[in-house]
Amino acid sequence: GAVVSQHPSWVICKSGTSVKIECRSLDFQATTMFWYRQFPKQSLMLMATSNEGSKATYEQGVEKDKFLINHASLTLSTLTVTSAHPEDSSFYICSATAKREEYNEQFFGPGTRLTVL
Amino acid sequence: TQLLEQSPQFLSIQEGENLTVYCNSSSVFSSLQWYRQEPGEGPVLLVTVVTGGEVKKLKRLTFQFGDARKDSSLHITAAQPGDTGLYLCAGGWGNTPLVFGKGTRLSVIA
């Protein structure tokens, strides 16, 4: 299967600082990447859809100025949590879409655990 | 409205038992994917089914896509402790974001 990496795998930061998370598709090009947030013992919550070369599409209730997404190339998308607060602490996961003949498959990164003190 | 209903939500069984997880929807999907997630890690893709009635096997795991492409099931034979995890089904249409079920948290006790 296709490989997606995320960096960092975990980060601890002070309240008010910004944190950048990188998502890379290592062996395929992904025109579309997705960012999810996951709370303990819950399923994935889609935050935004990131398209290469264009603005991200955010889900209802997700602040675009708070969660900045940049998809600069076909293999890299970044999520920046600006002015982080403790309530932003969560597990953030990205996924990248690999095109197949008749359908698309999504492959997930290993996730980034963000803790805001 | 939850487009994909997954059941059961929680399942705790003894090693060696069989189990089935269901994923149901009123919507038709062009593809359906099953993932397994362990704590602190991202979901890992197990299988993608695209054809109505399709059956795929992955060792002790058997995946089936309903004839109408609205539902799917995952059957595990002779479960092992290593099968413990969160199983997620996700339905897709083309390049749109997957719709995820709430997941089935499986615990296999040795």
Largest sheet of chain A: 7 strands, mixed
Most strands sheet of chain B: 6 strands, mixed
Number of strand elements of chain B: 11
Rounded to an integer in angstroms, the radius of gyration calculated over CA atoms of chain A is 14 Å
| Mean pLDDT, all residues of chain A | 93
Taken as a percent bin, the fraction of beta residues of chain A is over 45%
Q: How much helicity do the residues of chain A have?
A: under 10%
- DSSP helical segment count of chain B: 0
Distance between the termini of chain B: 37 Å
| Low-confidence blocks of residues of chain B | none
Structural class of chain B: mainly beta
- Tell me the Rg of chain B in angstroms: 13 Å
Largest interface: A-B, 28 and 25 residues
On the 0 to 100 scale, the average pLDDT of chain B is 93
Task: Summarize the topology.
The complex is a heterodimer of chains A (117) and B (110).
Chain A: E1 4-7, E2 10-13, E3 19-25, E4 32-38, E5 44-51, E6 57-58, E7 67-73, E8 76-81, E9 90-99, E10 104-108, E11 112-116
Parallel strand pairs in A: 2-11
Antiparallel strand pairs in A: 1-3, 3-8, 4-5, 4-9, 5-6, 7-8, 9-10, 9-11
Chain B: E1 5-7, E2 10-14, E3 19-24, E4 31-37, E5 44-49, E6 55-58, E7 61-65, E8 71-76, E9 85-92, E10 99-100, E11 104-109
Keywords:
A: 117 residues, mainly beta, four-stranded antiparallel beta sheet, 11 strands, globular, B: 110 residues, six-stranded mixed beta sheet, five-stranded antiparallel beta sheet
Give an account of the 3D structure:
By secondary structure, chain A is an all-beta fold. Chain A has no helices and eleven strands. In chain A, strands 2, 4, 5, 6, 9, 10 and 11 form a seven-stranded mixed β-sheet that branches. In chain A, strands 1-3-8-7 form a four-stranded antiparallel β-sheet, with no helix packed on it. In chain A, a hairpin with a 5-residue loop joins strand 4 (32-38) and strand 5. The mean pLDDT of chain A is 93. Chain B is mainly β. Chain B has strands spanning 5-7, 10-14, 19-24, 31-37, 44-49, 55-58, 61-65, 71-76, 85-92, 99-100, 104-109. In chain B, the strands form two sheets. In chain B, strands 2, 4, 5, 9, 10 and 11 form a six-stranded mixed β-sheet that branches. In chain B, strands 1-3-8-7-6 form a five-stranded antiparallel β-sheet, with no helix packed on it. Chain B is globular. Chain A binds chain B through residues 1, 4, 6, 31-32, 34, 41-44, 46, 49, 91, 93, 95, 97, 100, 102-111, 113, and chain B through 30-31, 33, 35, 40-45, 48, 50, 86, 88, 90, 92, 94-95, 97-98, 100-103, 105.
